[in-house]
Amino acid sequence: MKVLLVKLRKAVALVERPLLLYIRFGRSLRQADHVKRYCLERERERERAMAEVSNKQVILRDYVVKALPKESDLCVINTATIKLKLPAETDQPADAVTSSKVQLVLLKNLYLSCDPYQRLLMESVQGLSVPSMSSYTPGSTIHGYGVAKVLDSRNPDLKAGDLVWGTTNWEEYSLITTPQVLFKIHHTDIPLSYYTGILGMPGMTAYVGFYEICSPKKGEYVFISAAAGAVGQLVGQFAKLMGCYVVGSAGSNEKVDLLKNKFGFDEAFNYKEENDLNVALKRYFPEGIDIYFENVGGKTLDAVLLNMRLHGRISGCGMISQYNLDKPEGVINLMQLIYKRIRFHGFSVPDHYHLYPKFLDFMLPHIRQGKIVYVEDIVEGLENGPAALVGLFKGRNFGRQVVVVSHD
Amino acid sequence: MKVLLVKLRKAVALVERPLLLYIRFGRSLRQADHVKRYCLERERERERAMAEVSNKQVILRDYVVKALPKESDLCVINTATIKLKLPAETDQPADAVTSSKVQLVLLKNLYLSCDPYQRLLMESVQGLSVPSMSSYTPGSTIHGYGVAKVLDSRNPDLKAGDLVWGTTNWEEYSLITTPQVLFKIHHTDIPLSYYTGILGMPGMTAYVGFYEICSPKKGEYVFISAAAGAVGQLVGQFAKLMGCYVVGSAGSNEKVDLLKNKFGFDEAFNYKEENDLNVALKRYFPEGIDIYFENVGGKTLDAVLLNMRLHGRISGCGMISQYNLDKPEGVINLMQLIYKRIRFHGFSVPDHYHLYPKFLDFMLPHIRQGKIVYVEDIVEGLENGPAALVGLFKGRNFGRQVVVVSHD
Question: What is the extent of the structural domain holding B307?
Fold first, then answer.
């Protein structure tokens, strides 16, 4: 019994001090525990975030040299992974890309747009000198315009949860090192996909190319090639708002119908059904053309030159008919530029992005009031992106071609 | 005797009254006689003036279609005559040309200039819409720029004896129905022939095409084709005054020497000795071209496009290499206009003549101080005009080609 009492006393002595401590500092201890649990939870969350998830990507196999791009020139891969959190600034290796000077932004891509200029980037092009216009690298993800959600950001103007449009990569998640090519989306009463088109780069292209480059005046005669595309459909509507006479050309009767009955063009024609574009233009423009919004180049440009009026203006936006040729078609009627004192002004919209706020002020009321309409051709799934993109060069799209990567 | 006295009295009576009248009104009679003599003299002078004198003319035989013009496409005739006084307004037949509403001006032509644009007028060209740019009529006198003396004028701003430059006909005397194409010459301390060149249309063309169309900036890289011609030699000097780096191309080593040693171009080359214009331009412009003053078109334009810099400007003045071809050469590198956001602006100097006073204020001190020099290639005699004019298209002229019709 004595032995038992001694053991019990020892046992009590063993717990006595901790117990006293517990009683004395109980409150503090409970707090410390809470902090510890909190830290553990955050650590687990961080680990989950830092865990690499699969990142589907569209890759250019090799340069497409002077040929129509095929779906097989691109491939969709599922082997890449990405961490859904930027590394802590102290963790990062001190290389050029992840240097703390680079304001990394991590995006979840929602919508990607298919644009004709992307064909040019499938070749090795030099001298374009804007970040969004650098040639693709064979074996790497292609880039383009898109709408995305910010998952993490080291840029002070962007935070997790923000929606943006701008230059991103054709993949599910993108680590952007040049956040200056991203524009924050403030107005979400408009369909988000519109920021790949009417409220994004093509919208700005139409706006700058028409209002800034063409110096339009009420009553002038306006011709638009590739008029049913992402840019052309808007230029035509801008020209109608300005009080111009507007004719568009497109590559199918369905598109011609769209131009006349949806976008309000005065006239439209299917260039594939015209034997002589010069004759076609003379039919629609007996008085000649004041403004030509150039999207196609080649034979169309040659025919337009013959039909331009004195002091006409040509807004050089693109020459899609030439992108896939072994050698561009020679344009022979350039003397008309001098005879008629015409201004041909090539432009690229990134030079004009400082006008974006002014553009939004103009566009938003028109869209909300239904005074400017927009037609999109939406494809679901990044895996269907290559077909959508190469389809552009066969005129398969019906309105602005968009690829949905994720709806939210 | 009585009979004799009667006869004498009758005879005295016959002269008495006139004699008395003569004595009484002698002074008035002498005045009337003076007036009569004066009127007779003026009448004789008017008759001399109204007498038709021979008027040598240069005639276009027939349209020159897509070929190098030959001297035999033009002919000099001596059969035409002209009255060296305008008909009195009341005398004139009420037709369109001599209607009193038309402010006729009669000119004695002194100097005529040979200009590349005249080749275009040897074909049936439409749509140029400036009086000086209407096609020639086969069988009729050709027109062009010249310096002339006013012999008679129904225009309130011009009087006999005035010197003018502007659009006139290739003949000794011209009846001008559009005096708005004539500019009065106020500064005669400069050689009169300069008003066909440095102080006339080519000077204005160089001035407008460089300063107004090209928006030049100090330090920019400037290339000028046909640089030893009437316009090119001035553009190069303007560009040097602006602090640009200037290279010109020409068609002979003598002209290249002129560009470098007389006009102060930084570099110049003989395009006929270059196998590859693209290579030549890369040699002279390793950094590319900011401003191209386009005088020749075709292959040169194609090579220039490849070498233009971002936001470059091309002043479309002429395309002399294309004027005589069966079909213009196709220009294939137009996509560069878009890649590099280039502005190609065709212009024609008559659109800018309102700037002539500003131009004179700029040019006169530079000429007087020898800061701008000018080289002319002067041919004596209207009969040598056709050879001088067609020689222009073979590059025979050495500087500004002028034809002297009369020295005063």
Answer: 201-357+360-366
Supply the CATH number for residue B226's domain.
3.40.50.720
- Phi and psi at residue A14, to the nearest 5°: -65, -40
- Residue A45: inside a domain: no
B288 and B336 co-located in one domain: yes
Kindly report each contact of residues A182-188 with a partner whose C-beta sits within 8 Å and lies 24 or more positions away, as own/partner.
A182/A105, A182/A107, A182/A158, A183/A353, A183/A356, A184/A157, A184/A158, A185/A147, A187/A360, A187/A364, A188/A163
**Contact assessment for residue A95 and residue A310, using Cβ atoms and an 8 Å cutoff:** no
Residues A352 and A210 in one domain: yes
SS3 A312: strand
Tokens 């301390």 label which residue?
A: B189
Q: Which of A301, A331, A341 sits opposite B347 (nearest CB)?
A: A341
Residue of B nearest to A299 (CA): B330
Q: Is A379 touching B (CB cutoff 8 A)?
A: no
Identify which has the larger pLDDT, B1 or B364. B364
| Position B187 in a domain | yes
- Tell me: do A191 and A207 sit in the same domain: no
Chain A residues whose beta carbon lies within 8 Å of the beta carbon of residue B344: 337, 343-345
Minimal Cα–Cα distance from B316 to chain A, Å?
Answer: 6
**Cβ–Cβ below 8 Å for B335 and A297:** yes
What CATH number does the domain containing A76 carry? Answer: 3.90.180.10
Please count the residue pairs, one from chain A and one from chain B, whose beta carbons lie less than 8 angstroms apart: 103
ipTM, two decimals, is 0.81
| Residue B338 and residue B351 in one domain | yes
Q: Which helix (H) or strand (E) holds B257?
A: helix B253-261
Per-residue model confidence as pLDDT tens digits over A193-228: 999 999 999 999 999 999 999 999 999 999 999 999
Query: Smallest Cα–Cα separation from A46: which of A91, A87, A104?
Result: A87
